[in-house]
Please model this.
Amino acid sequence: MRRLLLFAAFTTAPSLLVAQSSPTMPAVNDRPNPYRTVEGWAKLPEGRTWGSTSAVAIDKDGKSIWVAERCGVNNCANSTLPSVLKFDQNGKLTASFGSGMILSPHGIHVDKDGNVWVVDCACTLGAAQVPAGKGHQIHKFSPTGALLMSLGAPGGGRDTSFFWQPNAVITASNGDIYVAEGHSSRAGANARVLAFDKNGKLRKSWGSFGKGEGQLDQPHTLAIDSKGRLFIGDRGNDRILIVDKDFKILDTWYQFSRPSGMWIDKNDVLYVADSESGSVNPPHGAWTRGIRIGSARTGEVTAFIPDPDIKPPSTSSAEGVAVDAAGNIYGAEVGQKALKRYEKKQ
Model:
């Protein structure tokens, strides 16, 4: 269903902007950039270099940053390095764990109790490279690295089993767990979102591969707003689907472009990382990579941090995004192998 999105506000202004949210809407690349980029902010141990990372989240304290990093390259299959890292607000490494447990860390989430959920997509390895009985799982760790729960069968599963190339995980205020699954963008691929109760019992599975309403193509990222609505970053379809807890579609937004990562803060500000427009997805036309910032309430896009390197074909800029309590933005980059920080300009 094609919907019109009205950007409304409680105001006595003489006119209101009405913008169309549709697959054919003009590219939103012209919003101001109120941020400055800080590179080299997080300090790895001596001798260790950044690998690809799409997984970044903020600790329960609102200041510390969690990252799941791919062991200096693009997977951890042959590495003994810990892949889950915690940095304080000054970029000092304060904790690390996960050595030998995660093949391709793809998403990370910190729940209300401070537990750390890590998605092992196993999607950066060829099928023949995946060790038997590993990958395609979601792991829940305590803040000190104790394994508390694993969702999905080791080595993965499809259809009534799960998971196959999971992308993202998030927990709701009542403890329900949502997992976005399906990293491939081709006919027959898994493309669904699964809902579990707080104990890991499957409650519902929703979605199938496709371009229509109720279908998904690479559901790559998840976020939840203050109303409890679930935002699904349907990356292969260049849209965000907003659904309720039972997956009833409430709205469909295209104005944030091709979503690889999403974050919604306590004020319902929506941050969307687009790491593929104009490079991996040339048909996307004039849209360019970067982080678009706006309202999760109205859908209005108010700011844009452009990718400094817009040349194809490599994925650049942030794929994962998180925002601390002070409003600093953190972008996790796959192609550039970096964790950048974006601070408000003075």
